[in-house]
């Protein structure tokens, strides 16, 4: 009956028309609503300028790490390394310890070249000290710290593996550069690498330190470092060296075990020669190694004993990079 | 005056002579005593037939291990391996599990070729079962067990290093032969080595078992094995296989961690081809690997879940055999 409105009287037709159109409109709205619900979501990867919801906050403090990188007079290397390290899996944040006193941080440049995968914080220092990187930075939110020298490039594969090893040995310094100390009959210690005779524990060599310039360690040790005797700070400041040896003493004393776990790197590079600054690292100073032996002996005095312990455990990744690297002739 | 005794009267001369000779005798005895004290000790290595005081009892139960070697139809290999293993550092005792039912143990021959560095006990079995080696032998005094197949030769260097690694990971099976399981979309597990696709955890490969035929583990696990469900024994007896997979399930369940720690061997050899017995090991049976996949699935039923966990940690000895094996290009 509603469809033959021409035949109906004026007022009745008016009301019926109203009802009709209302029904049609409601039906159309329902259909439109249904269609909208069924439409696929718009993919936002076609909009590269749109800032994504940062995901880092959701990374648990246990499953990620903070990179702390101190830098002096090698900003070109710093920026090159930041591009590499900013995309390492499980990285939470980067803290750059800016030892270029009085020089502006490259924050503008950094921001102009954004967006970046993770936040980077520039900590401006007032004095150029080696131990600046061992502060207990308030920006540090993760349990794990990755400390890297500003001229050292380690592959993402190595870092991902070493981080997984650290998670199994969280009280140790897990890293890529092993060193040792040797006792001599005179009671005076010497510091060195594999060229030094092994400590005499059977076959092979031993290490008693893992350097923190390419290593993971627990952020709690930065807290502990704030409570070291003044003599330790004085030693590091006097030599502008040995902060890493001091950290190994701290960790070894704390655990009663070897301070470090050595992970053999597949791809580790020193980029020093690539810098335009003309600045070479501290380790080129003539007295560098002698200083380090000196530091070992001073620290033994301060600690009233030798807490460093030897280890000969060398860890590699099973089946990587060569998937049969564990195979034997049997 | 005493020296002109010819001039003295008889009785006086007699007493004086007595005194004189007494003094001379006493002086000679003192000189002889002094000389004897100063003489070097007689070295007893010139007397090979002299039995030395056994030193093994003084080796602490923590610093030494017991070798358990099961043997079937390969007595020539057994004896060759006994000569090799009897001199391994830190070995406390050898337990030979004699699966040659009804056959005399070679004890006479063993004794006639003595002395031996350590005691060897032959445990005569009544039934030829693969799981005979997993008994809780009363002769076992050490915390550590080294279990070896009777056709496997591992160098002393590898064993000494792996023992030191076990001492750092005493709740794990520390050994030289890694294997893994894979889950498939159907929920059915498969067993294999590196030819199987990795479980998909990023780079490289993973292992979830370390075979006990060349491994150190805690003797407490032999106690634990006596309390396994009957179904586990039935499975091992049915297949004459899989006792090692069962041990890995046991250890993984107990620790909640990967059961094994893989130490990459420098020198491991299978001597199978050298036997005169003509007997080849069980692993040559056509169904051997399929059986092991079958065992994995059966054990998952018995355990009501999959306790095995993956690891990609591969341990080698720092600076051995190549003293610079940890060196990198940096």
TrEMBL record, chains A, B:
Q: What is its EC number?
A: 2.4.1.223
Which molecular function terms from Gene Ontology are attached?
A: alpha-1,4-N-acetylgalactosaminyltransferase activity; glucuronyl-galactosyl-proteoglycan 4-alpha-N-acetylglucosaminyltransferase activity; metal ion binding
Q: Which family does it belong to?
A: Belongs to the glycosyltransferase 47 family.
- Coiled-coil annotated spans: none
Q: Tell me the Gene3D superfamilies matching this sequence.
A: Spore Coat Polysaccharide Biosynthesis Protein SpsA, Chain A (3.90.550.10)
Supply the source organism for this entry: Ciccaba nigrolineata
The name on file for this protein is: Exostosin-like 2
Which gene holds the coding sequence for this protein? Extl2
- Source species, domain of life: Eukaryota
Q: Which residues form the Glycosyl transferase domain?
A: 65-320
Q: How does it sit in the membrane?
A: Single-pass type II membrane protein
Q: Which InterPro entries match?
A: Glycosyltrans_GT2/GT47, GT64_dom, Nucleotide-diphossugar_trans
The entry's keywords: Disulfide bond, Glycoprotein, Glycosyltransferase, Manganese, Membrane, Metal-binding, Signal-anchor, Transferase, Transmembrane, Transmembrane helix
Q: What is the lineage of its organism?
A: Eukaryota, Metazoa, Chordata, Craniata, Vertebrata
């Amino acid at each position: 009956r509603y469809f033959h409105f021409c035949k109906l009287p004026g007022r009745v037709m008016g009301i019926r028309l109203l009802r009709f159109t209302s029904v049609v409109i409601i039906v159309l709205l329902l259909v439109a609503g249904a269609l909208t619900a069924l439409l696929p979501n718009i993919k936002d990867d076609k909009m590269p300028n749109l800032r994504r919801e940062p995901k880092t906050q959701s990374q648990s403090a246990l499953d990620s790490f903070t990179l702390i990188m101190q830098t002096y007079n090698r900003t070109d290397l710093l920026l090159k390394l930041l591009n590499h390290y900013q995309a390492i899996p499980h990285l939470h944040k980067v803290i750059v310890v800016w030892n270029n006193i009085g020089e502006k941080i490259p924050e503008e440049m950094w921001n102009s070249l954004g967006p970046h995968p993770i936040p980077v914080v520039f900590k401006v220092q007032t004095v150029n000290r080696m131990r600046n990187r061992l502060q207990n930075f308030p920006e540090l939110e993760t349990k794990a710290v990755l400390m890297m020298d500003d001229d050292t490039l380690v592959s993402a594969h190595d870092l991902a593996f070493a981080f997984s090893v650290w998670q199994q040995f969280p009280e140790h310094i897990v890293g890529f550069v092993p060193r040792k100390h040797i006792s001599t009959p005179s009671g005076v210690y010497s510091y060195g690498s594999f060229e030094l005779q092994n400590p005499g524990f059977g076959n092979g060599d031993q290490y008693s330190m893992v350097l923190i310039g390419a290593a993971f360690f627990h952020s709690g040790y930065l807290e502990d470092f704030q409570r070291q005797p003044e003599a330790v700070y004085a030693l590091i400041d006097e030599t502008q060296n040995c902060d890493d040896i001091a950290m190994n003493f701290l960790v070894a004393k704390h655990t009663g075990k070897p301070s470090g776990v050595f992970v053999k790197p597949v791809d580790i590079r020193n980029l020093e020669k690539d810098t335009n600054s003309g600045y070479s690292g501290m380790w080129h100073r003539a007295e560098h190694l002698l200083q380090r032996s000196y530091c070992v002996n001073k620290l033994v005095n301060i600690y009233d004993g030798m807490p460093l312990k030897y280890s000969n455990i060398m860890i590699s990744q099973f089946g990587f990079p060569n998937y049969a690297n564990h195979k034997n002739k049997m």
